[in-house]
Amino acid sequence: MSSSSDKEKLQAPSSHQERSESITAASHNTSIGIDLLTPHADPSNPFAFTATQLSALVDPKNIQLLSQYGGLDGVARGLHANTHQGLCPDDTISTAVAMDSDTTKPFESSTNTNTMACRTVVFGNNTLPETKSKNIFQLMLLAFRDKTLVLLAIASVVSLVVGIYETIAVPEYDAAGNRIPGVKWVEGVAIIVAIIIVVLAGSINDFQKDKQFRKLNAKKEDRLVKATRNGCIEMISIHDVQVGDVLHLEPGEVVPADGIFIEGHNVKCDESAATGESDAVRKQDWRLCAELAAKQDPHTSIPDPFLISGSKVLEGVGTFLVTSIGVNSYHGRTMMALRTEDEMTPLQVKLNGLAGMIAKLGSIAAGLMLVALLIRYFVGFRYGVPTDKTQIVGDVMSILILVVTVIVVAVPEGLPLAVTLALAYATQRMLKDNNLVRVLASCETMGNATTVCSDKTGTLTQNKMTVVAGTFSSSFFRFRRGASSSDSESDNTHDIDQIPQDAELVHIMNEGIAVNSTAFQGKDESGQPAIVGNKTETAMLNFAAEIGSNSFENVRQQHPVEQVYPFSSERKAMATVICLSPGELYRMHVKGASEIIVGLCSSILTMDGKRQELTKEDRTRIDHVIQSYASNSLRTIAVAYRDYQHQWTTAAQGEETPYEDLIADHGLTLIGIIGIEDPLRPRVKEAVKTCQQAGVFVRMVTGDNVMTAKSIARQCGIYTTGGVVMEGPTFRNLSPYEMDAVIPRLQVLARSSPEDKRILVERLKVLGETVAVTGDGTNDAPALKLADVGFSMGVAGTEVAKEASSIILMDDNFESIVKAIMWGRCVNDAVRKFLQFQLTVNITAVILTFISGVASESQKSVLTAVQLLWVNLIMDTLAALALATDPPTEELLQRNPTPKSAPLISLKMWKMIIGQAIFQVVVTFVLLYGGILDYAPEDPALQTIVFNTFVFCQIFNEINCRRIDSSLNIFSNIHRNQFFIFVFFLCVCLQAIIVNFGGVAFQVTPIDGPSWALSIVVGLFAIPVGAVIRLIPDKVFGFLFFKPATRQRYLGENYVPASPVNPSIYLAGNDTYDRVQDGVMEFKKGTRRESATASIVIPSIVAAAPSTGAAVITSPPPAATKEHHSPN
Fold first, then answer.
1. Pairing verdict, β 724-727 and 746-750
2. Which of 324, 346, 901, 944 lies most in the core, judged by the most C-beta atoms within 10 Å?
3. pLDDT digits (tens, 9 = 90+) for 351-393
4. How remote is the C-alpha of 227 from its chain's centroid?
């Protein structure tokens, strides 16, 4: 029992003089800033401390500073708080308190002296300020910064100004002499409308996504906590907690604010989610903690009085005084530090580069055209200079209009919309697949992920621990869930139902399971009664209930707890001492890692409760049992006990007996070994295999031991022949060179810490990988933030992990990651499909406009500005909708990811773009200048046929662009995309309306049936032409690429990069996996004798398992050499 009433040796400074001396002495201590000990001069703050001074108590934990503040009583006094009665919300504050003085002075506030209002003004609320959520107009401004949109905006303004001028100053007349209504300004307006549509679509989607995430977070964050206010215990919202509140601690509770321990019994907290420290930290009165800290004993775990927000209470009950809330708390500062701007994704970078390139090429083409037309125009002056200067200005403006048209045509107006639509459509559909996308561009990045570093518990496994096997007593009574009668006869293995419930061993074991546990009766996520706590302990308690044990709560009430030694990573065990008969009989129950506990035992219990010596043969058999369980993916727990007659400790009253003293003589009695299974999630093996087939290297990063990690990884298909298993401590001590050598084959990182995960992600990114990482704890946040795509757990994940992640797995399931990869590739393909379609239109239109404009006597293009607007803007927008909504297929996962260095437009795409452009240009010029239709080039009917044919070429090429690879089946799954079918027929209908009724606005004339048939048939030829282009091998164009690096990017041929990089074994172009597998097969057949030990040799750090050909790396050999060896 530890409470504030304990008479500890170290007393708080009780008088003003003592406190002043303490503060004066501390002012010379460089470890504590003088600002923390200097009384504030804020007249609006009636408290002795500022928020900063209180925050310094916890980060880092500073027992010395607490002492100088006057201890718990001094802090409570300075906060106008009562550690027993709590705050009274109706009270008012009439006096101000100073840190270095016992005297008070009247406090007058110009606003409100209510205690809660004053605390809110000085210390804030227990909420984090909402991320500076951008309003819709800010999001629109951000969307408008896209380079393509800026280019479009410039072109639209120029087009609008020139269009208005041309409409007013340069009227046009048709063949009959009638004035054509001025509609040239429509193009500029239409482009502006397109920009507005793009900006609105992107910004509204971002706004809704942000709103959805905030709503989800607000719902998850708000909860009720138990507080003492005005002497009564009540439940209050976590958002209403104030500095000075007295809150209660209970097992399973997440600490809602920073504070100082007041009193309680056996309170232990798991601060691993907040600080990364895996050991349970005991909370005791601050004076005892200060005394223990003064002793500076490095071998004992020193308790502390500080409660850290975000940590979890493992056991015990108590109260604490709140000192920091909201942004001033440990948890709040961690959350605020994660609010950083995200980097541009590879696709965004490439699209920006493409926009810049198009702007340059469009400007060059326009410049050449301007020069050519001006030269031609002024050369014509030799036949006479026009006398009307207005005519010259009008002619020059006509040339400028045509030049502007070329620039407008060159810009891919629909591209930003295609990207936005693809991402928006994908994110909405991904939510149905349990992927909540927080960062819109992350789903595009996920499509190119080359490696996934996955947690084990809860992601690959179900995190539903169940006792499935065990071995008890000296007779080695074995049980296995679901064992048959034949098993019992053959190897003494029984089903769980056959465990004798009345055996004394079973009674002792059930007693130990009940008392030596921090789990408690509560409610699960759905509100149903359940055992809540550590998953291993809940499994053991459920097992005890299953074999007939009394309620564990009743067992705990019958046996008062004398001392608890919580689980720690050093001792790998937990122990609880209970009183069976006061002053006569005490019993210590111990459970923990099997190897450790068995080594501390000198005897073993028989079924009837008698102790028997643990022989060497018994230890050998037990070791075999442990290895057998571990190799079957079971977590093994040993349970043991020890009885003490009359007195179990010689420690003085109030002092703890070290755990090490109780087990120093290795006198425990072994009860048995329990095997606990965390079953794999359904279909996780298939999901891992799918990832590997998709060229994504899956790594398992877990805190489990090597044996269990290997077994689970092997079941999942992650651990394969040729792979490497390494322990975290070994990995983090490698040099960068050694890491780079081992990482390409590293499949399992066992006994790893979050820092190991962060280092692994960092090195993978250095090696050029696109990395996806899963994480659930607060200390996983750095790795999640560092990764290209961070996946946090929607069920088990902390708020910090979610804030640091890009995508939240709503079901914590690895299978959802596979769906994210599939959707990411779908998004990338959608953008590339549209790019292939758009650039074909743009290149063809620019060439037609350029050549027909230069060739025309009147310097007019065969396609008018309004016709080009229909093709280049409206049709492209519809095509973006059609191509962006193609649903993902399993086929997407049968290819390797696209490297970051890969070009945005592949060679296959360039073949199709240029091939289709050549086909369309040739067809158009044959129709226009070939004389096959008996029309003059300037005839409106011919120009309408040319326009109609050009449009149908685009409509049928849209089907062609559904594939960006060499597959000939362009109709695959077309029936699943209803948008595409709708857009296709909509474009056909609109084109028919334009040709028949567009008249003056589109400068077209109705055409007859044969002309319609000609346009459609010629357009239909885009499909067979596309098939022919796909049949042309890529290597035919190899002569175009002189540099090896460029050949590699476009043709995929092997070359030696400037700086060698170790590629993942599943990636294309790396035959390591195949070579290792072949070598192992040769070795097994006996055809390969030169290497009988390792299939992989990494410098100075590898020990290999010949039977599997896989390396298991646990720790460096004593005499590590720096020689470099080549892989076998």
1. parallel
2. 324
3. 767 767 777 787 788 888 888 888 888 887 777 777 766 667 7
4. 35
CB 509 within 8 A of CB 494: no
Cα(674)–Cα(599) distance, integer angstroms: 16
Q: Which CATH number is associated with domain 51-103+112-128+223-338?
A: 2.70.150.10
Instruction: Of 20-34, 687-701, 931-945, give the lowest mean pLDDT range.
Output: 20-34
Could you give the CA distance from residue 405 to residue 846 in angstroms, rounded to a whole number? Answer: 9
Report how far residue 592's alpha carbon sits from residue 774's, in angstroms, rounded to the nearest whole number: 28
Burial of 664 (0-12, 13-18, 19+ CB in 10 A): exposed
Residues 6+ apart with CB under 8 A from 861: 402, 405, 848, 849, 852, 853, 868
Instruction: Report helix, strand and coil shares of the chain as percent, to nearest 5.
Output: 50, 15, 35
Q: Which CATH number fits domain 466-649+660-677: 3.40.1110.10, 3.90.25.10, 3.20.20.60, 1.20.1250.20?
A: 3.40.1110.10
Query: Does an H or E element contain 1025, and which?
Result: helix 1022-1031
φ/ψ of residue 129, rounded to 5: -60, 140
Q: Give catalytic residues, as residue numbers.
A: 455
Query: What is the distance between the alpha carbons of residues 716 and 633, in angstroms, rounded to a whole number?
Result: 11
Whose tokens are 């001028």? That residue is: 165
Q: What is the mean pLDDT of the chain?
A: 78
> CB atoms < 10 A from the CB of 241, how many?
23
Q: Please enumerate in sequence order all residues whose Cβ is within 8 A of that of 879, keeping only pairs 6 or more positions apart, or say none.
A: 414, 418, 834, 837, 838, 954, 958, 983
The tokens describing 727, both together, are: 């322990």
C-alpha distances in angstroms, 780 versus 639, 785, 1059?
A: 32, 9, 31
C-alpha count within 13 angstroms, C-beta hemisphere, residue 1073: 18
pLDDT confidence band for 1056 (50 / 70 / 90): very low
pLDDT tens digit string along 630-680?
A: 888 888 899 999 998 877 876 666 566 788 888 989 999 999 999 998 888
Angle at which helix 346-379 crosses helix 389-410, to 10 degrees, equals: 160
Is 90 exceeded by the pLDDT of residue 589? Answer: yes
User: Measured between alpha carbons, how far is 478 from 903 in angstroms, rounded to an integer?
Assistant: 61
Kindly tell me if the per-residue pLDDT of 27 is higher than 50: no
Interhelix angle 1009-1020/940-960, rounded to 10 degrees, is: 30
Q: Which amino acid is at 1110?
A: A
CA atoms within 13 A on the CB side of 795: 13
Query: Is residue 181 classed exposed, middle or buried when 0-12, 13-18 and 19+ CB atoms within 10 A define those classes?
Result: exposed
Q: Which amino acid is at 665?
A: D
Write down the pLDDT at residue 639.
96
Strand pairing category for 466-472 and 668-677? antiparallel
User: What pTM, to 2 d.p., does this model score?
Assistant: 0.65
Interacting residues of 661 by C-beta distance below 8 A, sequence separation 6+: none
Report whether CATH 3.30.360.10 matches the domain 435-461+681-812: no
Residue carrying structure tokens 């990045």: 445
Mean pLDDT of 124-145: 79
Q: Residue 831: which of 353, 418, 344 has the closest Cα?
A: 418
Quote the CATH superfamily of domain 357-412+829-1035.
Calcium-transporting ATPase, transmembrane domain (1.20.1110.10)
pLDDT digits (tens, 9 = 90+) for 598-634: 999 999 999 988 999 999 999 999 999 988 888 888 8
Q: In 3-state terms, what secondary structure has residue 228?
A: strand
Q: Give pLDDT, residue 212.
A: 60
CA atoms within 13 A on the CB side of 341: 4
Q: Where are the domains of the chain?
A: 51-103+112-128+223-338, 136-220, 357-412+829-1035, 435-461+681-812, 466-649+660-677
Q: Are 772 and 449 in contact, with CB atoms under 8 Å apart?
A: yes
Which residue is listed with tokens 């474009």? 987
